[in-house]
Structures are given as C-alpha cells and as structure tokens.
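[Automated response] Your request has been received and processed.

Submitted sequence:
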Amino acid sequence: MAFLQIERSGGIVTLTMAEPATRNAITDNSAVAEFEAACAEVNANAADKVVIITGDGPAFSSGGNISTMHRGIDPATSCEAMVADYAHGIQRLPLALAALEVPVIAAVNGPALGAGCDLACLCDIRIASETASFAESFIHFGIVPGDGGAWLLPRIVGASMAAELSFTGDRIDAARALAIGLVSRVVPAAALMRETRALAERIAEKSAPALRYTKRLLRESPTSSLASLLALSAAYQSILHKTPEHRAAVEAFEARRRARQGERA
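Generated structure:
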C-alpha cells in the first residue's frame, strides 16, 4: 500500500500520509521516495497551484521509526554507512520539499514529533488542529535532527526558542505553537481540513506563475542581500508582465473601474 494518498481538485493537491499503524513514520518505508515523486510531479504540472500535507489517523507524523534504530547501534554498522543512510534516505525529503515550486500548507491533525515536526516546518504555512502537538524530540534519544531541523526551526521561531525546544525536546501544544509563531492558526479538529481547504482555494484562485515566482522570492530572501533580491524581483516581474494571467487581471480591473465611473456619471 502506498504511503501517500494523493488527491487533486481545483489546482489543489492533497498529500495524506496514510500509515496510521506507525503514526505516519517517515523513515524505513517508501515515504521519502513517494514525497520526491509527488513533488516532481507537482513541479511539472502547471495546473497544480497549492499542496496540502496532512496525516491519516490521530497523528500528523511520529517522525523517525524508533523500532528500526538498532541498525545504528549495531557495531557492525560503520559511521560511514550511517552517513550514507542519512544522505540517501531521510535527507532527500527536505531537499525535495525545498525544491517544491508551489505553496505548501501543513494541516497538522495531531502530534508532529521529531522528523514529523521538521516536515511541518518544511511547509510554507502551518495550520494546527486543537489536538496537534509539536516536539523537536531528537535529544530524548541522544541524537540530533538529522533531517535539517536545526536549519529550519530557528528561521521560524527564532534562535532562542529553537534552542529551548531542541535542547529540552519538550512537547508543546497547539496554543503554545501559535504563541511562538510555529503555526499561523489553530482550529477545532473537526474544522481542520475545511479551514485548510478554504485557504488553499483562496490561494489557488491566483495566477499560477505568480505563485511560483513569489515562492521563489520568499525562499531566496533569507540568504540574499536586498540588492540581489531586488534584481531577482525585477527579472521575475518582467516575465510575469507578459503572462496572460497578468493581462486578464489588468483588463478586469480596468473594466470594473469603467463600470464604477459609468455608475457615477
């Protein structure tokens, strides 16, 4: 059975992690390969405008599968082999999602722990159910975030809060996640997908090329100088001015203005 259930409707692609028996663990299964394939397909499909990632069952994702960590403990497994495991395994996931060209919303339906928390952090927007919780829990097992969490978390909640969460491994509830900016809103569990879908639909109404270029600018901004970002913005803008979506929007605006002027005459 596939790890991801994929649904497409109205420019919105919903990726549901569908392995509730492992609380949607994303290691030692086909999860990484399926996310890679789904991201590549979205990037190649101009009709796809927004991605939603959520989990089936009570959890968003438990992250790494703890029951398979004995391989790393085994003296027969070398450090070099473990490095290769990470590079060719879980670390492909942040690279795939970072390369995803369209906006991504995490609908966090339950616990997002360890790599599951980092998966949520890879999304552009996070909406949490009241039953959601979050933990950068690697420290509890004497390991570090091997999937890029130490890069992601400070950029979202700031250095001090990221350090506290990473050093303690404390689990925080949805209300605390909202207070520190880890999520943008908290909604009742029964309304999670409805609220997430409504936001996705608002985004999907917009120009597909403009969405993709806007996301590129947002991703470039943390590591770019203002001058560099302005130059890149000008280049993207010159392309977007030539798109049919831009022309249609300008023509619609002009038509509305003429109609308002006619009403005042």
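Summary generated for your ticket: Strands lie at 4-9, 12-17, 50-55, 104-108, 111-113, 125-129, 133-135, 171-173, 185-187. Residues 208-264 form a domain with the Lyase 2-enoyl-coa Hydratase; Chain  A, domain 2 fold (CATH 1.10.12).
If you did not submit this request, please reply to this message.
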